[in-house]
Design goal:
Elements lengths: L3 H22 L8 H26 L1 H31 L4 H32 L3 H18 L12 H9 L12 E4 L2 E4 L1 H25 L5 H13 L1 H8 L9 H18 L7 H7 L1
Antiparallel strand pairs: 1-2
Helix pairs in contact: 2-3, 2-8, 2-9, 3-7, 3-8, 3-9, 3-10, 3-11, 4-7, 4-8, 5-10, 7-8, 7-10
């Protein structure tokens, strides 16, 4: 499903929404209020569900349920991203009013990277069908590992190869320069710590996508549905971050819930050629 023109129009629509977000409603860096984040969360969810209704009307219930299941998978796993974002922003003491811009550009990068990963994953699965079992085993293993692994609050980005490389090859200011990623100092173009934070956010998104994208392939192998459900879920991630950042400590059983979702989807992928679990069952479980 999904002709080239449909892919193009979808991405143009998403870029329009993002341009409207940053260029009109959030043109100036500011501390986001609770009312604002809840409003934007509602807007992104409403747009996603309207798209889902459109799929139901034009493509039928099966495709619509596949989209909804993929959306809920990515939305659930995205909550885990928020823990990492909190640690990154806390570690680098990123002012609250600049965090929105970092997450915005992070989503722009995610659009490009995830599109590539989804196209590659779809090509691999269609050419080498047996890889679906490997993806399933990987998800099941990840879910079990998530369940038994003890929480580790340590976070040391200075040990990350990416951070070391950036600091070694790119001149960097010691302090934030408002919300700028790059500034000129004595005629020399220098990166700010905010640019480093953005790179770490992008890197962490790639790591999370390694789990979430194969999980969505567990409910549908249509690359357009995988991509659109993935993108709609991460579009609301910024608002979700600001809405939940202050109460994340209350999500006591989040890891348990996510681990069961990953194990279920992984198992579904491994047995799909012997028994196809109905999408309605998958949706209910998720």
């Amino acid at each position: 499903m999904g002709s080239l023109s449909l892919w193009i129009w979808f991405n143009v629509f998403i870029l329009f929404l993002l341009a409207l977000d940053l260029g009109v409603f959030n043109r100036k860096s500011h501390e986001v209020t609770v009312k604002e984040v809840l409003t934007w969360s509602g807007v992104w969810i409403a747009i996603s569900l309207l798209f889902n209704v459109g799929l139901y009307y034009f493509k039928g219930s099966e495709i619509a349920f596949q989209f909804l299941a993929g959306y809920l998978i990515e939305k659930s796993l995205s909550v885990d991203n928020i823990f990492v974002f909190i640690m990154i922003f806390s570690y680098f003491n990123v002012p609250t009013k600049y965090q929105h811009k970092v997450l915005f550009y992070g989503i722009i990068g995610a659009l490009l990277m995830r599109a590539g990963m989804i196209v590659a994953g779809s090509a691999i699965i269609s050419t080498f069908h047996w890889t679906i079992y490997l993806f399933g085993a990987f998800l099941a293993f990840t879910g079990i590992k998530m369940l038994v692994k003890k929480d580790d609050d340590s976070f040391a980005p200075e040990a990350n190869f990416l951070v070391k490389s950036v600091k070694k090859f790119i001149p960097m200011t010691k302090e934030y320069k408002e919300d700028q990623l790059f500034v000129k100092d004595n005629g020399i173009l220098m990166a700010t710590p905010l640019f480093l934070v953005l790179l770490i956010v992008e890197f962490s998104d790639v790591i999370f996508a390694v789990d979430s994208i194969p999980a969505i392939f567990g409910v549908t192998q249509d690359p357009f549905i995988v991509y659109t459900s993935n993108i709609f879920a991460i579009l609301g991630l910024r608002s979700l971050y600001f809405a939940l950042a202050g109460i994340m400590h209350k999500f006591e059983y989040l890891k348990v819930g996510l681990s069961f979702v990953l194990v279920f989807i992984g198992t579904k992928m491994m047995i799909m050629d012997f028994y196809k679990i109905p999408i309605s069952v998958s949706l209910a479980h998720i």
